[in-house]
What we know:
- The structure is a single chain.
- By secondary structure, the chain is of the alpha/beta class.
- The chain folds into 2 domains: 28-144 and 292-377, Response regulator (Rossmann fold, 3-Layer(aba) Sandwich), CATH 3.40.50.2300; 146-284 and 384-407, Rossmann fold (3-Layer(aba) Sandwich).
- The chain has helices spanning 2-27, 44-63, 83-95, 106-111, 113-119, 146-160, 176-179, 182-190, 210-218, 230-243, 267-273, 294-305, 310-313, 316-337, 344-352, 403-407, and strands spanning 30-37, 71-78, 100-103, 123-125, 167-172, 196-202, 223-227, 257-260, 281-284, 382-388, 391-399.
- Helix 10 links the parallel strand 7 (223-227) and strand 8.
- Helix 2 runs parallel beside helix 14 and helix 6 crosses helix 8.
Amino acid sequence: MKQTRFTLITVTLSVLMVFGLSAQALGGETYKMGLSLAITGPTSDAGNPYSKGAEDYVRYVNDEKLLGDDKLVCFIRDDGYKTEVTKRNFEDFLDEGIVFYLNYSTGSTLALKKDFEEEKIPVIPASFHRGNLDGSNYIFLPITSYSSQAIGLAEYIVANHKGSTPKVAMFIHPSAFGRGPVDDVKKAVAAGLPIEVVEVVEHGKDLDNTAMLKRLMSKKVQYIICHTVQPPVATLLKGAQQLGIAAGSYGEAGKLTFMGVHYSGGPDLIALAGSAAENFYWTTSLRLTTAKGEGTDAQLAMAKRYGRDDKLANSQNYTNGVQVVQIAVETIRRAKAKGKKITRQALYEELLGMNGYNAYYPLTTVGPVTYSKTDREGVDTQQLYIAKGGMFIEVGLPFASEWVKKIK
């Protein structure tokens, strides 16, 4: 009798184990990522919607089973724009077994560069600083660099300016993030790009830019290229509007035409600056929701599905958060299709092969995402936009900076 009972228990346990294993197999694998960014503190105006875009796209991937029965988990933590907190977050993510990492600031990306190399983990930062790529194998920029964007704006100035050599000032964030493209713009000038960089202004927390604006006007500056986040740019534009020196049309004589790199503009700037943002020229590789199409329609539908308001849904920073997760998911999908086990190395290899016929078209950008061993600068093209009637609209077609090629 004891033998019979033991046999029944053994059979029952075996059946439960088989069913348990089958259920686990049917449930699929779980792939883990980490994202550390400034949800609060400096630059949180960009980091907060960015985090929501990343969060929503992860939910969308799982809800729509874009990875089949496999699941995606993304640990998202606030670092308050503090590098030491970012490092702790990254170390905690490693303990969780992440295979892909999304970083945020320029400062922390530069500081953790050696850590990324040691861990051999693919990293996509929210910082598009070209210097992130120097001495690194594992950092991949999601779109074209700040340098490419700033030089692209300078090229537009040259192509459309009437008169003698245009005088330009740069209005930048007082950090590694802000200073990033300044030297590259100056290199382009030294190589023959016909503009004169009259002054580089590292803004503070002042709410009054009157003295600075008057000084630039006295130096005959006609164009200001901004490379910072939206709040100080909004303050700058409001100041120019009050002084009556903001150009009503591109290159208006005796007035200032304002232009900006990715984080300095977009729909969020209009929300802050109001009518003072009118005629602000801005460039990025992201496609705005004002450009109707399959990708933008899908983004707006996803944001609505997850209860986001219109302001967030139309933010380029929300799009940015979506796009970086899109790249990671596409990398996982490609590795799975080849029967690879999802590891850091497998995903790294897939990123390096994302070029030519294997380029990735996410629909959130104005061009394809391409990478290789010698090019880890994401989308190579950028789109110029102008603020008109309370929205940013496209100016011309997407383009790639020609002068960047000459200084590399």
